[in-house]
């Protein structure tokens, strides 16, 4: 069975948590596509190599670093993510992943619009700026990172603006995406909504 779930949305809206829970619930494989951009951004910044060359030669080791979730990696990611050739270099890997047998869920910014425009299910996950900043602050602080709520909020605002304004695959909801605003939802409630929506699609026989 090939079944693709595309989850997009702005930074720290809950995409990753929902994507992982959906993958668990249905036995799908999951790809956090932000990891690809974070790995390219960090390596290019550290080595001075051209980001396009880094993207073309990305290795499993690059993706296995334990510092990919830092704010520096996030900013580096969004800087290289504006480069069309970087996006092109990462495109086929993501499309192949989406078509893996048994079902796949991918989360990012352009999954429902560019990577998998024919995905079986598309979700666009949002939350208010304040709630997203608070959630990301708690996540990073729990990992012992030296951050403040203000710097986290600024990081999200800068990245969201850059991600939405870029020419190549800008962050935007696909026309046929279900909008899921998690501002007032617990994680469990948001996951339950996503799972119920996917179940309906499967029952509708779209598989
Ligand atoms: O976890 P968070 O939502 O903060 O970020 P992420 O999903 O790890 O993505 C980091 C950055 O990579 C984003 O700000 C985007 O600039 C870029 N990105 C992208 O352009 N396209 C994707 N499909 C995924 C991430």
Provide a short characterization of the protein structure.
This protein is of the alpha/beta class. The chain has helices spanning 15-26, 34-47, 51-56, 60-63, 71-80, 84-98, 111-115, 129-142, 149-165, 187-203; strands spanning 4-8, 29-32, 104-108, 121-126, 178-181.
Structural write-up:
The structure is a single chain. The chain is built from 10 helices and 5 strands. By secondary structure, the chain is α/β, with parallel strands linked by helices. It has one domain: Rossmann fold (3-Layer(aba) Sandwich). The protein has a 5-stranded parallel β-sheet, with helices on both faces. Helix 2 (about 35-45) packs across helix 5 (about 70-80). The longest helix is centred in the last third of the chain and has 17 residues, at about 150-165. The model has no long low-confidence stretch (mean pLDDT about 95).
Structural class, from helix and strand content?
Answer: alpha/beta
> How do the helices and strands follow one another from N- to C-terminus?
EHEHHHHHEHEHHEH
- Sheet with the most strands: spatial strand order: 2-3-1-4-5
Biggest sheet statistics: 5 strands, parallel
Give the CATH class. Alpha Beta
Q: How many structural domains are formed by the residues?
A: 1
* Contiguous runs where pLDDT drops below 50 for at least 5 residues: none
Question: Which CATH architecture would you pick?
Answer: 3-Layer(aba) Sandwich
Helix content percent band: 55-70%
* CATH fold-level assignment: Rossmann fold
């Amino acid at each position: 069975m090939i079944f693709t779930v595309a989850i997009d949305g702005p930074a720290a809206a809950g995409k990753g948590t929902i994507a992982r829970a959906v993958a668990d619930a249905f036995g799908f494989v999951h790809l956090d596509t932000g990891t690809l951009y974070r790995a390219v951004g960090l390596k290019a910044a550290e080595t001075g190599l051209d980001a396009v060359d880094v993207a073309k030669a990305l290795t499993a080791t690059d993706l296995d670093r334990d510092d990919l979730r830092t704010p520096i990696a996030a900013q580096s990611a969004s800087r290289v993510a504006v480069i069309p050739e970087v996006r092109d270099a990462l495109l086929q890997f993501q499309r192949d992943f989406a078509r893996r047998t048994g079902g796949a869920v991918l989360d990012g910014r352009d999954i429902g619009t560019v990577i998998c425009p024919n995905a079986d299910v598309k979700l666009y996950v949002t939350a208010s700026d304040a709630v997203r900043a608070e959630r990301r602050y708690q996540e990073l602080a729990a990992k012992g990172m030296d951050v403040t709520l203000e710097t986290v909020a600024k990081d999200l605002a800068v990245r969201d603006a850059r991600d939405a304004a870029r020419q190549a695959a800008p962050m935007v909801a696909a026309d046929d995406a279900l909008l899921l605003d998690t501002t007032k939802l617990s994680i469990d409630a948001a996951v339950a909504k996503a799972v119920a929506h996917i179940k309906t699609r499967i029952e509708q026989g779209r598989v």
